[in-house]
Input
Amino acid sequence: MTQLWDFAGGVHPAENKHQSTSRPIRRAGIPERLILPLQQHIGTPAEAIVSIGDRVLKGQKIAEVATGIGVPVHAPTSGTIEAIEQQQVPHPSGMADWCIILKPDGEDQWGERNPASDYHQLGRDEVLDRIRNAGISGMGGAGFPTDIKLRPPRDRKVETLILNGAECEPYITADDMTMRELADEVVAGMKVMAWILRPSRCVVGIEDNKPEAIEAMRKAVQGTQIEIAVVPTKYPSGGEKQLVQILTGLEVPSGGIPADIGVMCQNVGTAVAVSRAIFEGIPLISRVFTISGDAVQEPGNFDVLIGTPVSDLLAAAGLQADKLNRLVLGGPMMGYTLTTDQIPVIKTSNCVIAATRAELPAPPPEQPCIRCGECAEVCPMELLPQQLFWYSKATEFEKAEHLNLFDCIECGACSYVCPSSIPLVQYYRFAKGEIRTQRAEQLKSDRARERFEARQARLEREQQEKELRRKERAKAAAEAQAQKQAEAEQTVSQGDAVDNRDAKAALVQQALERKKAKAAQATESTQQAPTKPAEKPDIEALEKQLTQAEAKLNTMQTMLDDAKTQQADNVDKLERAVAKNHDRVVRAREALAEAHKLAGTESSPQLSE
Amino acid sequence: MALVQQTSPHARNARPTSRVMLWVMLATVPGLIAQTLFFGWGNLINVVWCVALALGSEAVILKLRDKPIAFFLKDNTAAVTGLLLGLSLPQFAPWWVSGIAVISAIVVAKQLYGGLGSNPFNPAMVGYALVLISFPVAMTTNWAQPATLWAGAPGFSETLATIFSASQTSIDAWTMATPLDEYKHKIATFTAAEVLQHPTFGDLVARGWEWVNLAFLAGGLVLIWLRIITWHIPVAFLGAIAVMSLAFGSNADQYAPLQLHLLAGGTMLGAFFIATDPVSAATSHQGKLIYGAGIGVLIYLIRTWGNYPDAVAFSVLLLNFAVPFIDHYTPPRTYGHHKARRGVPGKNGG
Output
């Protein structure tokens, strides 16, 4: 029995999986139009390598990523390229992006395929190349190019390869049905990945609410070293970080990847895609997709060509349009609502819920948070959702970040239990978005500042260089001049010594004058101090000052008297003012007397004593 | 086809706040029954009066604040505040004392701070502390005698008349000092055995009070079982009182014994229903333990060396002050981190 660990928190939402597991996987068939977004993976968008009007064969590469991270896109069936245009793509914002529109010709004619009967002989790089060229990116939802993920950094040896078959989101059964019906392909794909990574342990994690899948997988892994780990049903056990914790007891470091602790997670669907790419030479052109919800009569799983519009699948599952209230792409916990059913299924899509109003009712109005802590109890990341909410709402992003906002996996468990019906996850998305914008702006302004400073430095340097050059030129010119003069003088002095005596006399004269000037300056400075205050205008000024001060004192005194008689509350203040003015008058008088004294001294020295 | 646009999660399974509050109120019923059985109609009348006044003043202030009245009244939080005051005030507290307590709780402590969820202090305890300081006589002399002591317990109408009469007629015959009060003041001059002769202590711990406290304990355990509150605050609260009592007050001839601390006064009501008010309490599990223990320690200190025989209100309010501080230093360790990020941003490894 595999040892299991528990993760913090978690919730048990109604599973609603039985609706879509009662029927086997059906073929959705070839739709009238296929909408193939150029970006179905994380990284650089692919670029179309076909032109409008081209006929393409099934499995033919129609878009490629020349440089950067990314994987190509292939034609899911044979047909004609009808357009390359902006179309609404699966995204929470409902945005449009470049898509290749393929009009199938119905012949489903295969192009060239290159299956490998024994991949061991190809070498690891060749196998990884084939995985990339098959357009495989993670099919669990993130869409990270699988070949890059299978090449972890050299210092990160993957010891445990985990195949994620937990599928903890309610409604979704795509992985469940894949494991039930395609267990051999799942195991074959996993073996290829294990051969590339050479881990010491291979384990498939499946929630215990999928007994059929567990049974099928157990049968398929017989004779291999792959473990089947049955994990307790608890949302979000299928979150990468949570499944790693359940199966290894280790935590993925914050901001890191599982490879940092020697673990790698791959999705069940991805394993099937790898198996097909290697053994059959089939690129990723279809996937298993769940259509569920009370608004469809025959919910179930479909083998869907990538690019098939959701509307076709809804029709195939028997949509009752009058009952439809909400279309959710993904599960009810993390999925997002669609604004239209003209959205294509892409490599990362796994489910559409056509919900009735009663099935997924509108939430009651938001009430104030009472900090009851239910959210913290269920948070699988051990965050404090109530505090994050508080700081996000108050746009105190620094504090929210301090409480590890960016460790939130947006699983929705907190909102699921919130008694005040607060859309907590939406607040966190808002805060994260704002912080990212701020960071981007900060980066931009930092760069602008650097650029500006660099420019300033450059201008300054140029100025200095210019100055230097100018000085050098001047120096050179002066030297040239001096040399010229010297040459000239030399020629003159040879015949004329009398002038020399005149020059000497002039020098002596100059020196005498300098000495005289110095002496004059000294006497002036010694006389300055006593003479200055004795000047007559000063006495006048002082007298004026004194009269002014006396006048002010009088005014203050009358004001104080008035205030006293009226018992006004500014008496204190006025008293202080009067005292101050009194001092001023006294000082002015003293100064005047002093001035008079000095003036007297000058005119009649005998009175000074 | 107009499709509803909504952010995830689309599934919800929450107990609405109103139902949580309803459960809190229901969980106090055993305690209220015990109070009525042992101390007469006073608490019940207080509860009805306080709840009605709480709802009324909440409605008025919501109207003044231009907020939807029915929407907020339906969350039952004002009713809980009124209920808690009705349960904790003296049985014969005059109507205006309880009225002032309720109005200051709802209007000042709750709504003027921003309403539900924004109040830093426990509203009920703000109201209680206010009247305890302002009307010490009314708040200490109106405690009912345990009814079993007393043959002619005041009937419903007599109690009603006492509470609502303009001038309080002589009710001395129906009242008695609380056991904690009695013990505190007598133990200075008498031995424990002598003090315990007083009828207020009865045969077990404190006649009537012990059953009231046990009933609140039972109600509190229901709340934990229903996962409306967690165990952290009550356990730390009661544990701290026990530790303090065993460490400093083991001599019964000097200090009130532990059983009296736990089963007299407002201990259990405070531990399970008042200190656990989520709005004004600490956030994380560790924070709740510190918060609960802090209240317990303060209760013991004030009861033993302070001027008040019971101290739940002051202790809760003092720890309410400390909550932001506690919260800063007790966040849990997040998945994928080596340790918790304590303190404020920019400091202590922020």
The first helix of chain B runs from residue 17 to 27. Chain B touches chain A through 46 residues (CB under 8 Å). Chain B is about 60% helix and 0% strand. Residues 179-330 of chain B form one domain.
